Automatic annotation (TrEMBL):
One of its GO terms (molecular function) is G protein-coupled peptide receptor activity. One of its GO terms (biological process) is hormone-mediated signaling pathway. One of its GO terms (cellular component) is plasma membrane. It comes from Dreissena polymorpha. This is G-protein coupled receptors family 1 profile domain-containing protein. The chain crosses the membrane at residues 12-32. PANTHER family: G-PROTEIN COUPLED RECEPTORS FAMILY 1 PROFILE DOMAIN-CONTAINING PROTEIN, GLYCOPROTEIN HORMONE RECEPTOR. Keywords: Membrane, Transmembrane, Transmembrane helix. The keyword Transmembrane applies.
Amino acid sequence: MLTPLQVHSFLITNLAVGDFLMGGYLMIIAVVDSYYRGNFILNDQFGRKSVLCKAFSPLSPASSAYWP
């Protein structure tokens, strides 16, 4: 049986991991945004099919999902 302190620690750790993942995801988006500034629409399909986008796209849902 888990004590309330163990449950609280698990939930805080869960939140911290989610925040860390979202921060990394947003940093990647910021770097790509600054790289394609002004001509993103010309490179839209290339960017969406890139290895970087495919590799890091699971970070957004993973950082906002509830992890029981």
